Amino acid sequence: MSAYRTFSRLGALLLLAGAAAVTGCGSGDGQSPPGPSALVGKTYLSTALTGAQIPGGGPLEVAFPQAGRLTATAGCNRHMGEVTVDSDTMTAGALASTLMACPGPAGQADAWLSDFFAGPLSWQLTGDTLVLRQSRGTVSVTLTQRKDTPLTGTTWTVTSLVTSQAVESSVALEAAKPRLTIAADGAVAGFTGCNDLSGHAAVTGDKIAFTGITTTQKPCDAEVTRIERTVLDTLHGSATYRIDGNQLALTNDADPGVGLRLRAD
């Protein structure tokens, strides 16, 4: 009887060991690879590339602002549209883009980007590193997640104005370069594109309460005055903010049709 019990225990141990071996073969380290949801809300910048190089040197920036949406730029215009992501394949739909003319080699970056996203890509996410490979070509890009820039202590330059009709950029806006800085103690300093501004800001969660915003009184031409008005309307009262990498979105809470898009210097 004692010998039988010993044999039974040995058999049970062998069965458990076999099951563990099968489980180990199926799951590797026991963790499933990240799914498509792991990309949402993240922005990635290229750090290595094999195959056809980006004209102008890039880098390639790829962002996933929400599920099923993609934005990308390779150093010239920003492209945006739908994307389908499954377990190992990423396929972009027709991508719309801004229409900025880019000088020098960067003027060909849009063609490179369009070709790269023209067909399905294989994708692999390991920690902060995303690898995208063409299924039909030879280009492979390694990208690293871009960390968010701190709200305070950063100089933010306005790149687009948000109105109830559109999100717009212009030559006048690029020349005016409105900017905003919020210090750690809440002091606000900036430039409307024509006049210097100052005031105070209190940050709570994703809200910024602006108070005491004043400006110098230099006269501006009509287009710069319009830019200044949008800047000041956005900073009137409370605004909701969102940071994605080095991009800041500000939306006025009283009038959600008014806002700014800014980039960290």
Major sheet: arrangement of strands = 1-2-3-4-5-7-8-9
Largest sheet entry? 8 strands, antiparallel, barrel
Contiguous helical run count: 4
Based on DSSP secondary structure assignment, what is the total number of beta strands? 18
Indicate the mean pLDDT: 88
Which stretches are poorly predicted, pLDDT < 50 over at least 5 residues?
Answer: 1-29
Give the overall form.
Answer: globular
How would you describe what is shown here?
- By secondary structure, the protein is α+β, with helices and mostly antiparallel strands.
- Helix content is 20%, strand content 39%.
- It has an eight-stranded antiparallel β-barrel. An eight-stranded antiparallel beta barrel has the order 10-12-13-14-15-16-17-18.
- The radius of gyration is 26 Å and the shape is globular.
